[in-house]
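@channel sequence for tomorrow's demo:
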Amino acid sequence: MREKKFEFIFDCGSSRVRGGAINVDDIKKSFYTESEFFFVQSDIDIKIKDIVTSLEKNTDEYLDSINLMIDSQKMLTIGVSISKKLDGSKLKKEDIQFLIQDAKQQLLKNYPNQNIVHIIIQNYKIDDTNYNFFPDKMNCNLISIDVLFICIPKNIIDYYKRIFFKLDISINQIFCSSYAKSLNYKNSFFLNENILFIDVGFKKTSIIYYNKNEIIFFDVLPIGGNHITSDISKILNLNMEDSENIKINFEQQKNVLNEKKISTNLVQQIISARIEEILELSLKTIKLNLDFALLDQHKVVLMGDGSRILDSEFKEKISFSKKIELIEESTEDICESAFKLIGGFNKQEVVIIPKKAKKKGFFEKLFHLFR
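structure tokens (generated this afternoon):
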């Protein structure tokens, strides 16, 4: 059996599926494709199958396993602090592994319907001294760590597992799309910059904040671009497809609107009102986690399909920061975000090993730390 040359990534969103076959030897020889926009979630089976067929044809490889990127308005982020007395003994990697395992078990006990997809160590505290890296082989009396868990409901993960199982495809690793993308994109900015990502999706908006290259908080709002489409549909009595087309192609649709005797000013007001609501709700979340007076010292980065309507005219309505950038994402950018995480490039994160991996020691079955 020949060795596989490609790592397959699927980003399954609420309105579009993207797929990538990334060549592990030469990333320039990779293949990417995406589905058409869809409203009905039941259509996702067909979209996934079409992408599987396309990637198999382009790579000449049988696709039997993939890495999955998903987001959900029902995602949870849970922060845990946990400590252990060492009474002057030397700190070892195993001490951190025990702490993480303890925190993980506590979380799963209290949230049995959640699946942990990311475990991020935000801080190490050794005898009242903070470290953003693992201070190996240091004598200490008390070690404590701050851990951030990103969780997705089990029923959502099971839903996608069933879809791929019908195609005889297993899922290796699961990634939160917003988090993976923010990790990838933040490397385009200065490492000492404080960056706030607002990822406006179809049904949710994610807010991720990095302080000097380290994640500080992650929150999710159950509102996105779909709410703008619904507003246009209800107020103008149009179907969802026409409303979506007006939303994303507003400038090009002005003649069509005039022919239908629909006020362009009214459409603009509808879009602006919902955008302001999304940004105001994002602002409330930011205020809970960040000193608002310092916000102008942070770069704000807008991404996601829902942010595409935020052209220069709408951008001027964002009053809470002068440092705003819009990221035009491609399927290649999104899939490569997960590919980099597979390689373990984020030193803050505990890399969860898939269950079907080869046999390892007790802790390595759970995760591989500091690789």
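heads up for whoever presents: DSSP finds ten helices and 16 strands in the chain.
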